[in-house]
């Protein structure tokens, strides 16, 4: 009962996170003449909204079947997504403070088009990783269905997910290396026309992204561990054996997902 309560607690965070994402998307939508970089954030926010809605639809037992570590890291992902949207929304208000009636002043156009490209890219990457994490959890949770027999289809599905998560972890590790380099650069260099307040804001966003990357890495490592355990069980099981996924090899059995499993991860250039 306590474990199901933890899953319910995580799912209860989805609604406020969803509202934060939608508020930011609406704010961007009201800006006329916004640069392409910030317009693309609207698309990112839309895909995160869809991922949040899918995550919200997960039954508590399915989420909990992935184990307490996954539940905890999913909560961390949701909380950071909400924080990032809140901070970026506040920053966007400052960046467009010279504009009115939805139109951008030339000064704010320059700020968004020239000086805030890095922060917009950082926000886009945070949204992308949030979406990928949520979709991965939803997809793998959908495999946690009661199955009487272990079939070759189950083994193929679990193996495919193992490969996807392994690739995603490798991508995250490259992003973490890049983020460390970015933070080191912030420590020694201030960009031209950048005030101390601007620099502090950029560093805070980078640190938030770093926390999100570390959290994503932990979440995917736990998922990979569970997938590998399930794959090993599936390959050695005889007909009628149970394949389990969860803490200490407890939880629902791994089954077959009849939904799409493609394009869970997308590498950004």
From TrEMBL:
For bias type Polar residues, the affected ranges are 251-269
Q: Where is this region: Disordered?
A: 245-269
Domain Azaphilone pigments biosynthesis cluster protein L N-terminal, which positions?
A: 1-202
Query: Superkingdom of this entry's organism?
Result: Eukaryota
- Known InterPro entries for this protein? PigL_N
Q: This chain belongs to which protein, by name?
A: Azaphilone pigments biosynthesis cluster protein L N-terminal domain-containing protein
> Organism classification, top ranks?
Eukaryota, Fungi, Dikarya, Ascomycota, Pezizomycotina
């Amino acid at each position: 009962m306590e474990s199901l309560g933890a899953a319910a607690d995580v799912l209860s965070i989805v609604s406020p996170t969803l509202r934060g994402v939608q508020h930011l998307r609406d704010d961007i939508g009201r800006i006329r003449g916004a640069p392409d970089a910030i317009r693309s954030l609207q698309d990112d926010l839309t895909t995160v909204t869809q991922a949040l809605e899918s995550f919200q639809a997960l039954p508590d037992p399915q989420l909990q079947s992935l184990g307490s570590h996954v539940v905890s890291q999913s909560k961390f992902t949701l909380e950071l997504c909400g924080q990032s949207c809140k901070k970026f929304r506040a920053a966007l208000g400052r960046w467009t403070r010279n504009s009115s009636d939805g139109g951008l002043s030339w000064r704010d156009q320059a700020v968004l088009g020239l000086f805030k490209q890095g922060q917009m890219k950082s926000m886009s990457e945070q949204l992308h990783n949030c979406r990928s994490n949520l979709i991965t959890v939803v997809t793998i949770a959908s495999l946690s269905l009661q199955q009487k027999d272990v079939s070759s289809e189950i083994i193929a599905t679990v193996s495919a997910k193992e490969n996807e998560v392994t690739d995603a972890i490798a991508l995250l590790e490259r992003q973490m290396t890049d983020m460390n380099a970015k933070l080191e650069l912030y420590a020694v260099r201030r960009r031209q026309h950048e005030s101390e307040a601007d620099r502090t804001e950029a560093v805070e966003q980078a640190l938030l992204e770093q926390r999100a990357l570390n959290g994503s890495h932990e979440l995917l490592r736990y998922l990979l561990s569970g997938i590998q355990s399930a794959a090993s069980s599936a390959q050695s099981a005889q007909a009628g054996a149970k394949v389990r996924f969860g803490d200490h090899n407890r939880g629902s059995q791994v089954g077959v997902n009849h939904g799409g499993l493609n394009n869970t991860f997308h590498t950004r250039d």
